[in-house]
Please model this.
Amino acid sequence: MDTLRLLAFSFFLAIGLFAEDRLQVLQEKAESGDAQAVYELAEALYWADGVERDLEQSASYALVGSLKNNPLAQYRHAVHLLLGQGMEQDVKKGFELLTKAIPGLQKLAEKKNPDALYKTGKLYQLGLINSNHFNPDDKRALANFRAAAALGHARAAYLAGYMVRLGLGTSQDNTKALQLFKESADAGFADAAFHVWIMHNVSGKEIVSEKDAVRYLKQAAESGLMLAEWKYGMVLAEGKLGLKLDKKT
Model:
């Protein structure tokens, strides 16, 4: 409990636009020993979901959730270990923990948990599931991403769109890919918004209108995505896509 309270104090220091009511509820649940709440705090800090990104705090919360046998937290902590994010890298322990997490993730995925569907999809995509003989499986990955996207998971919708755009695990389809990117972008995922712009650049206005291209590029830039900020500045400076010329940009 003391460890959780210390983490909680540090977490408050990282608050940005994170909804205070959501934070308070998560914090109260975490302090009472709720492993899911601890995991959600770890995810918020990992993805900078309304707070400043803090990999050390994320790793600490993920460790607490992992010790409580939450498979979602075990996955997150395994990633911290494998990549050395916010803690010392330990590939062996990372893979061991990931192997331990997989059965629990699969059970949650079967119950339509969107985050478990997304994470299981990533594991299929990377070929890290033993039951699949450690072979990448784009079809299963895409099926999981699509299922998670249907439940409102923004990053899953983005990855599903990316795979459909490239024809991975399915036939290539720009129209369906664009729809998935927009779903993800409308849920606030900046990378997806930027990919709407990219599709306009690559495929032209027959696929993505100039109006949509500019709107989503602006959204990605305002979300703080550096490449999008640069591209949007160039578009403004050159007065392209119907934007007013701004030579000061």
Remarks:
- The chain has 13 helices and no strands.
- Confidence is low (pLDDT under 50) at residues 8-18.
